[in-house]
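User: I'll paste a sequence; please echo it back and then give the predicted structure.

Assistant: Echoing your sequence first, then the prediction.
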Amino acid sequence: MQFDAELLLLAMAPVFLACIGWEAWHLRRTRPGAQLYSWRDTFCNAALALMQQAADKLAWLVIIPVYAFFYDHYRVYMWQASWVSFVVLFVAQDLLYYWFHRCSHRVRWLWAAHVVHHSSERMNFSTAFRQSLMYPIAGMWLFWIPLAVFGFPPKQIVAIVLINLGFQFFVHTQAIGKLGWLEYVFNTPSIHRVHHARNDRYIDRNYAGVLVIWDRLFGSYVEEDPHEAPMYGIVEPLHTYNPLKATFHEWASMAADFVSVRGWRNKLRALFAPPAWAAAYHAGRAAGANVGAAAAASSGATSIEDNHTAAFQTTRRP
């Protein structure tokens, strides 16, 4: 089956914009005090989308030849264009997307790109546009190489990735409730609201792209609880609508942690440990600084250097 996914998504652009307009109107009418849309947040999302699209256009120029190399030299099968090959490609890519998405929440290097998508404290259709231009640097494209080895041409790989991501636009909403039996097969707004939440019971769950069967199969599925509303955003909140800061804040934090920690084992953790490691490290440093400041004040420390010394000594005590 041959198709041009880029033209398909371009044709869908008015539909995406109409959905955003309808949702903003509907939520203002039905939940007037909730402020589920913000002009600044929406414009930030739009700017991030444009930046990501521009970066992807350049990245594909390099990545497609890589897929072509594996397709030409290492493919194990040759698929004929048909509905059967399309279904196999769709399911295989969706499985690989699940693992890419799960790794993006468990490996800080990947999270540094993916965190952009989660950094808004709002959940609406415009949040789907909130993407990072750094995905090619993080290595998202590496996860699709098996599709080339499995015998799918590079342009079909790009097309199915775009279709998968295009579908996910429609699960970024609070205006649609649960969808009955569909919840057992497909990713839905309810399932994806859980994924964007930072509540303890919800965090790092529901990694589905299109099919939720992978979450159910690999033990990462959690149902949205009507008695516990999702709280959106990230554990270390991003207090800015600047798209450049949204894009690079975690990369800057990761670099700073890499420089500040001692020992190569900790330096590797700063790059590749789960994001929870960084949050705990930052919390520990903040707590140590607070305790150190109090200790320095009580001992008459008069300089910044004294305060840092007191903090280090206090946090080293058993």
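The first helix runs from residue 5 to 30. Residues 246-316 form one domain.
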